[in-house]
């Protein structure tokens, strides 16, 4: 259960990676608020769309898109705007946290990780900003991670991109603030999506990470969406350039 934000009803929301994992939970949470939701996803999300239609009486607009293709991402944003009206909330959620070593990792592989995990955040914001300005403002929510703050091993490129997202958030908050466009970032802890459970959530790893948290319960997708709704709504109208950590009490940024 989450708070109801009446100003989100009928608003136009665009989410990257909105058909699976945390993104799917975000899509559903905005549908439950009565928002008009569009999302891009590289993999097929037709089954998820049908499920949302049956559950909420309104289907999100699903646009198949690889966010590494900037032209395709911009076209998807334009399509969503035509369908639902000016986008006033952008959630840059799509990410790829593949593990990799330091040695043997090539420049092309490094660039590929940046194309997924950092570049779309900038160009998505670039695409929605003119419309948000005309609308009198908007909210851009960038997904980062606590990974770069706790020096997790196994994905230095991903951690670097997630650190860069915080810097990008701060910079864009200054750049877009005069147009009443707010830019904030969300830094989740280890959220146990299906992908995480399938690939990396061993019994030992789960036990070790839980011991790092102040709150003795693992995070799931539903634990992240309340923060996103708050940042999208007018309840946070004077918040920008902020990094909100949702990790059960692993990190304590000063």
From TrEMBL:
Pfam families assigned to the protein according to its UniProt record, in alphabetical order: adh_short_C2
Every Ketoreductase domain range: 11-203
PROSITE patterns the record matches: ADH_SHORT
InterPro entries: KR_dom, NAD(P)-bd_dom_sf, Sc_DH/Rdtase_CS, SDR_fam
Annotated EC: 1.1.1.311
Keyword RNA-binding: no
Keyword field contains Oxidoreductase: yes
Enzyme category, top tier: oxidoreductase
SMART domains associated with the record: PKS_KR
Domain of life: Bacteria
Keywords: Oxidoreductase
Family the entry assigns: Belongs to the short-chain dehydrogenases/reductases (SDR) family.
Protein name: (S)-1-Phenylethanol dehydrogenase
Origin species: Mariniblastus fucicola
Name of the gene encoding the protein in the UniProt record: ped
């Amino acid at each position: 259960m989450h708070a109801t934000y009446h100003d989100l009803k009928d608003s136009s929301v665009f989410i990257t990676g909105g058909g699976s994992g945390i993104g799917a939970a975000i899509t559903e949470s905005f549908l439950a608020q009565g928002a008009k939701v569009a999302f891009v996803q590289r993999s097929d999300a037709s089954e998820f769309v049908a499920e949302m239609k049956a559950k909420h009486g309104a289907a999100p607009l699903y646009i198949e898109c690889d966010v590494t293709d900037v032209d395709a991402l911009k076209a998807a944003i334009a399509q969503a705007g035509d369908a639902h009206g000016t986008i006033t909330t952008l959630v840059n959620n799509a990410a790829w946290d593949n593990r990799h070593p330091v040695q043997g990792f090539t420049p092309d592989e490094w660039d590929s990780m940046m194309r997924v995990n950092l570049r779309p955040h900038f160009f998505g914001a670039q695409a929605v900003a003119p419309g948000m300005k005309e609308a009198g403002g908007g909210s851009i929510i960038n997904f980062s991670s606590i990974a770069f703050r706790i020096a997790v091993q196994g994905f230095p490129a991903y951690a670097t991109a997630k650190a860069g997202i915080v810097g990008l958030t701060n910079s864009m908050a200054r750049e877009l603030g005069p147009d009443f466009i707010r830019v904030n970032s969300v830094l989740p802890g280890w959220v146990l999506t299906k992908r995480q459970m399938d690939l990396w959530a061993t019994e030992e790893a789960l036990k070790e990470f839980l011991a790092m948290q102040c709150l003795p319960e693992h995070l799931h997708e539903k634990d992240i969406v309340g923060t996103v709704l708050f940042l999208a709504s007018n309840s946070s109208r004077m918040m920008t350039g902020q990094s909100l950590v949702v990790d059960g009490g692993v990190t304590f940024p000063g």
